[in-house]
Amino acid sequence: MNMKIECKRLSISEDDLGLQIVFYEKEKEEDPESLDYSNITEVVNSIGSYLMIQRSYPEDEFEKDYYYIELTDFDESGDLKAFIFTLTGKKLKIKWEKNLVEIELNIYEKDIEDLIEALKQFTQIDGQFLIEK
């Protein structure tokens, strides 16, 4: 699978359970009160296309970190194994197995700095993170 996405909004969150990074194509979500929740298509479209990567921390010493990728197309979502993130300017490439996603980062410089720190944390145990000039 090859896919391209334009990121206009970035969300990074971390808690005791793990680290999650979401790249959104929409700059902001629609007002939740204006949605017709009986129409699932409208609710899904309110978010727009996105890509989420998640690192779940182990609950005990016998478990390992778990990596997951979720795309708007749920059929392409699943385990994230043997992955490499490559950041070149304002473009991030994610390669895993036989898949490649290219993300054009149309976000603030501060968001890119936060993303770099989050990807360093994300790949601390598994995967690779490369920054190319």
Based on Cα principal axes, name the global outline.
Answer: globular
Please state roughly what percent of the residues sit in beta strands, choosing from under 5%, 5-15%, 15-25%, 25-35%, 35-45% or over 45%.
35-45%
Order of helices and strands: EEEHEEEEEEHE
The helix-and-strand class reads alpha+beta
Query: What is the total domain count?
Result: 1
Oligomer: single chain
From the alpha carbons, calculate the radius of gyration and give it in angstroms: 15 Å
Task: Name the features.
17% helix, 10 strands, five-stranded mixed β-sheet, globular, alpha+beta
How would you summarize the topology of this molecule?
Layout: E1 2-7, E2 9-15, E3 18-24, H1 40-47, E4 50-56, E5 66-71, E6 78-79, E7 83-88, E8 91-96, E9 99-105, H2 109-122, E10 128-132
Parallel strand pairs: 1-9, 7-10
Antiparallel strand pairs: 2-3, 3-4, 4-5, 5-6, 7-8, 8-9
Describe this structure in words.
This protein is an alpha+beta fold and 133 residues long. It has one domain (2-132). Helices cover 17% and strands 44% of the residues. The protein contains 2 helices and 10 strands. The chain has helices at residues 40-47, 109-122; strands at 2-7, 9-15, 18-24, 50-56, 66-71, 78-79, 83-88, 91-96, 99-105, 128-132. The chain is globular. The model has no long low-confidence stretch (mean pLDDT 88).
Q: What's the short version?
A:
With 133 residues, the protein is α+β, with helices and mostly antiparallel strands. The protein has one domain.
